Amino acid sequence: MTLEWEQVIVHAVDPAALGQWWADALGWVVVHTSDDEFEIRPAPDRLPGLDFVRVDEARTAKSRLHLDFRPDDQDAEVARLLAHGARRVDIGQGEQSWVVLADPEGNEFCVLAQRRPQ
Hints:
- It comes from Streptomyces tsukubensis (strain DSM 42081 / NBRC 108919 / NRRL 18488 / 9993).
- Pfam families: Glyoxalase_6.
- This is VOC family protein.
- The chain has two helices and eight strands.
- It is of the alpha/beta class.
- It folds into two domains: 1-56, Roll (2,3-Dihydroxybiphenyl 1,2-Dioxygenase, domain 1), CATH 3.10.180; 65-118, 2,3-Dihydroxybiphenyl 1,2-Dioxygenase, domain 1 (Roll), CATH 3.10.180.10.
- It has a four-stranded mixed beta sheet with strand order 1-4-3-2, with helices on one face. Strands 5-8-7-6 form a four-stranded mixed beta sheet, with helices on one face.
């Protein structure tokens, strides 16, 4: 049996707005849009993607899944994402090497420290 990871589903009150925010943040392309769905990928034929699907209610509890990103320059990426509309959040992480941010609908994600040369 073979499984291919197709996408991560993200529930959103406004799929198009949130999906476009992430497309811009990641430099990804839009591959599908409808009234209730907005899908982006790293490239049109490259998986996995993020598929933003409409839900009527806003998120009310801590996310059970979040994405981690490893940048070349953590400070520069955090500043770029904050300027793009992300916000810093405290989820009880304390002093860590990563920075916890949230997208415009409050979904947390982490910007990790850059990799150390091996």
